[in-house]
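Researcher: Next entry: Glycoside hydrolase family 65 protein (Loigolactobacillus binensis).
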Amino acid sequence: MAADEQYQIHLQQLKHKAPGFVETIYALGNGHLGVRASNPLQGNSPAYPGNPGLYVNGFYDLSPITYGESYFGYARNNQTICELPDPRYLIFSVDGVRSDETPYQIEMVDKTWDMASGLLLETFHVTTPTAKKFALTMESFASQAERHIYVVRYDVRALNFSGPLTLIKRHAYVNQQIPRDNADVRRAQRGNQLTQTYLHTAVPTMQLATQKSQLGLLVTMEYLGSDPRVQLNADADVPNYEIALDLTPERSAQFTFGYSVGEIHNLLAFKLNQARYLEKDLARLNDESFTSLFEASAARTKQFWQDSDVLIEGDPILQKGIRFNLYHLYQAAGRDHRTDIPAKGLTGSGYEGHYFWDTEMYMLPFFIYTQPQIAKALLGYRYATLPAAGQRAREMAIKSGVLFPWRTINGEEASAYFPAGTAQVHINADIAYATDQYIRATGDTDFLQNAGFELILETARFWIAYGNYAKHGPQAGHFVINRVTGPDEYTALIDNNYYTNRMAQQNLRLAVKYAAELRKLAPEKLTSLAVTEEELGAFKQAAAKMYLPYDQKQQLKLQDDNALNRPRFDIKNEPATNFPLLLHYHPLVLYRYQVNKQADTLMSDFLFPVDQDEAQLRRDYNYYEGITTHDSSLSRAIFSILANRIHEPAKAQAYFLDTALTDLTDLQGNSEDGIHAANMGGSWLSLVYGFAGMHYGNAGLTFVPQLPTGWLRLAFKIKYRGRQIQIDIHQNNATFTLLSGEPFTVYCGQAPCALSQQMPVTVKLNNA
Ligand code: BGC
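Model: Predicted structure:
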């Protein structure tokens, strides 16, 4: 793929943008590590208004949650992703003045992120306290080929002087004093107490250990080159490289440093095996150079785009916006079956680096259909935490099955506010739903047998124990699920949340369906998991009798049993400065009103398209749109998709615009805390499930394309059961091409398109 402006992020007027925002936008990552695009001279200095640092997926510390009144079963520990020393950090010394002692003036001049290759190119202009000016250019990337590697190349050029300048490259200190703004609950509320020690090894190595979670990690830093001016001071208190230069404006000097960020180990194993781990970390950079490492990484990135790119012709800004989102998703996703995707990716400490339902419901589809091996790794993380989810269910007095945590890193519940946290038990059904989507799209029966079925079964078992058959009122005889919180966090602890019940119903049905499949594939699995006919019968019955609240008079799906008995919150007359409402009202105020933070019942309409006809969907849409604030960035994508389904193209387009550009335009005002990863996944959903209308219809995989006005083309690829299919939509027609794999029929609206390789099928669109 040629270097193409359409793959480049080049924000104008960087000087006027908040450093934290710029750090997030240009953050680099590869699922294992993430590096914010900090001011490289500031390290983790508390005086700097940004928030520099390195994040390693799954490297977190614990601290006890202090409650005024702590009840049984409340989550015990905060889990907080660690902010690690900034690998971009560099010290200068000119005229005897060091930049880490006396601040140099540094002006961000330019940043270009070429997402086609993954390279970030930055220029800074630096003025020393003695008025010497020089340009610092940085080229950096997080390797997509070797997830432990991060590389940075510095280029220094004098601008107004000739003379000596010394560069010192060493690991930065951890800043444990980062000030916190406790007024915004979405921000990380605490720093970490890390132990940072330096090892006197062949290259500067830092050993990081957490206090309570007892995790250890090695980070090595190696000069990659042979310039004799680079001196290693291995025995200094803080081992470093020192580079004494004699600069002239004509001659620049370049130096490359490779970082190897090791695996996370528990501290005991870490101490016992440190030498072996170190050897492994160092070996990764052996005989490597900037070019060799970059070529390997760029080749992998190219492959990513080949499978995952989306073309939007006719709107260059959206084209860029969507690529920005897709690449950030790729950078954020854990790939080792032990880590997931934090809500902020690896770009910030917002939400403490926790994993939520965001992965399964918003981000996983993109990976399932374009990078299925990553989707499998992400579900693998859930499978790895199944035992913890089992323990949690027991703690919650649920005798069988599992309860996954609402927010977590290590698999234990970390939500200190249970009404809008732990009570979102729909997370269980979300994981089951996503597991089914993965198996359906890939046909991966190995995964079904080795992990998928257990995930679906154990989550199904939970519902039978959590819910019950009602004896009174309109619910009598039905299976009900009381006291839950649905996706909408402005309505908590309700009975029969439509979304939760519909998802639980699906979860139960999936367990029955896959048990039947396993009976043929691996009957011993059913025996080992103690699945009985009686249990499957109970699943079937509860699903059939599941209560789904509905108002006959208004012909409306109800968010919960009591939804219409609450007064409507006057959203229209609320001052704009009061949004998001969560920062201005006590939860109990919001809970008493009909006011939604995000799509809830509509989320169910989105996920189960064949449940309702268009008239029903339109009624649901109009009603819920009127009470939704979109205070959560997870909301607009769903409204965009459903607007397409009810043929409201202007709305679909407007909601999509906000979704696609949420972080680039700082729509939520908090991008400095990290990207809104679920929303980024939502932008792919809006394109593929919305404008291309992809869904499982009654006949099979179906598309209902509708291009927004002004767009000339929307094109993307999906993988489906060993095939790759390209979908190419224009205003008047849509073309389906089977790029690889066995012949297959997709549906465009009602029209079957029998696909075989080299035989694209074009369908004329009615909306032409
Ligand atoms: C949303 C949740 C989401 C969480 C993390 C909250 O604001 O309401 O649905 O899981 O953010 O992104």
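Model: Note for the record: Residues 343, 351, 356-358, 487, 489, 597-598, 632, 634, 678 surround beta-D-glucopyranose (CB under 6 Å).
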